[in-house]
Specification:
Structural class: mainly alpha
Strand content: under 5%
Number of domains: 1
Oligomer: single chain
Order of helices and strands: HHHHHHHHHHHHHH
Distance between the termini: 36 Å
Largest sheet: none
Helix content: 55-70%
Radius of gyration: 19 Å
Shape: globular
Length: 285
Amino acid sequence: MVLEPLHAVTYFTPDARRRFEASGLRGFWRGYFAGRAAPLGPVGAAPVVAMFFSFAPPVVQRALPAVWSLASPEEALVARREGAAQALARLAGELPGGPALTPGGELDEMVSLSRAAAEAVVTAGRPLAAANAALPWPDHPVEALWQATTVLREHRGDGHVAALVAAGLDGCSTLALRCGHDLRRDTLQPARGWTEEEWDAASSRLLGAGLLDHEGRATADGVRLLAEVERVTDAVAAPPWQALGPEGCERLAALAAPLSRHAAASMPLLAVIGLGRPEPAVEPA
């Protein structure tokens, strides 16, 4: 999705990291779990394990609910919104000929189009999308752009999780299969916190199902299963883009593409969300 890097600045830029730290959330994972879960309120670990899907439960349990003693969900919401807007404005300023993220012109058009798509999301069965879609729209246009990309990203993500579950995959198995096809185990396994024993057990299940071979590579059936999951994910993510229409989608993509490409190139850690490596998950002090 061309808008994904615009959303991801909230996790992988120094601007966002500094803003989370200013709110009391030191360290990558505190900011990640507090920022992403904040629309749900002061939630505990169990629902987040389910919704975030591919994280080992102990990684989530080390962060939640402890982070809420450092920053309230309301404070985390402000931090993620302001940090993301600062990052997007900085990145736009580095890009010759890119969209000027100042009120008027291209920014207003990007906000209008992305918000129209975000307001058309179908939230039934999509808890993260629903929680983000229920937030009030910021007055600041760059913050509103980031919020729209976030609603759309979580809408697609919720649908992707549902497609994976329907395909019979759990979080660790999904990662093991992807790493047998197009991602790196040495990046994703430590980032998501799965032990060697858990990863090997997931790989054994995939081997028994004919989805991985003995070298840990995805078989033809494994590749087909991943492709079918992506097809279903695309299908259930389509309503907001259908509401925007072909011309609106093409215009938004054209406006966002230069900044999105620059943002992606500036964030080598994007591989950790499947698109570098964050610091290891550690016990919050």
